[in-house]
Specification:
By secondary structure, this protein is of the alpha/beta class. The chain has a domain of 150 residues: Rossmann fold (3-Layer(aba) Sandwich), CATH 3.40.50. It is 24% helix and 22% strand. The strands form 2 sheets. Strands 1-10-9-6-2-3-5 form a 7-stranded parallel sheet. It is globular. 39% of the residues are buried.
Length: 216
């Protein structure tokens, strides 16, 4: 069975940003451009802040969203509000559309054939992207789905099909509140959504607290 590449570090946001910058530079060197999908959540802004200080070929990088809350432009719930200052071309999910399912299909049509990197977080319930526990979105054969209300908002999200096709996946999660789910993921608990993430090519950055229940 494939194992996760787990890295327990003192500054996960900085270490993950440096790793991501290296992957984006490598993509540009190999293919002339870089494609990245990013999540929101509490761990994303510190990583984005660190990424701004890294050597990133922004003019050849395009960023898509992994998921987004259905909310008006400028709403603080929107993950889009975290992307200010990233100098890449940014393709926001069309969550203000009146016809969300048609908009999701159009967004899917504009995705790259294969992302260079997909960035993910993890919730205290084991969700990643907008894949709630028990939701059938993880079984979808479509690239982008619209789900029902989850933690107060409807969501648009990439599906496992797209996430797992990426050349690399970066998972960043920190804090003692995540330790139990990190342990369950490490032991391949199929009941939690993040276990749908492909292990090959996935790098996980943790702090000491999030890793506290893992085997030495």
């Amino acid at each position: 069975m494939s194992t996760l590449d787990i890295r327990v570090v003192d500054e996960p946001s900085v270490s993950s940003a440096r790793w991501l910058a290296h992957r984006l530079r490598d993509a540009v060197r190999r293919r002339g451009s870089a494609t990245l999908a990013v999540s929101g959540g509490s761990t994303a802004p510190p990583m984005f802040e660190a990424l701004r200080s890294c050597d990133v070929p922004w003019h050849r990088t395009t960023i898509w969203q992994v998921d987004e809350r259905v909310a008006p432009n400028g709403d603080p719930d929107r993950n889009a509000e975290q992307l200010g200052g990233l100098l890449a071309r940014i393709r926001l999910m069309p969550v203000t559309s009146k016809d969300l399912r048609t908009a999701a299909r159009r967004y899917a049509a504009g995705l790259p054939e294969r992302f260079d990197v997909v960035h993910l977080g993890m919730g205290g319930d084991g969700h990643t992207a907008s894949w709630p526990p028990g939701d059938r979105v993880v079984e979808s054969s479509r690239a982008v789905e619209v789900i029902g209300e989850f933690n107060g908002r409807r969501r648009m999200t990439l599906t496992p099909m797209v996430v797992n096709a990426a050349r690399s996946r970066l998972v960043l999660t920190v804090g003692a509140s995540k330790a139990a789910m990190v342990e369950r993921w490490f032991h391949s608990d199929t009941k939690i959504p993040i276990d749908r993430v492909r292990r090959d090519g996935t790098v996980v950055f943790l702090d000491q607290e999030a890793a506290s229940r893992l085997p030495v």
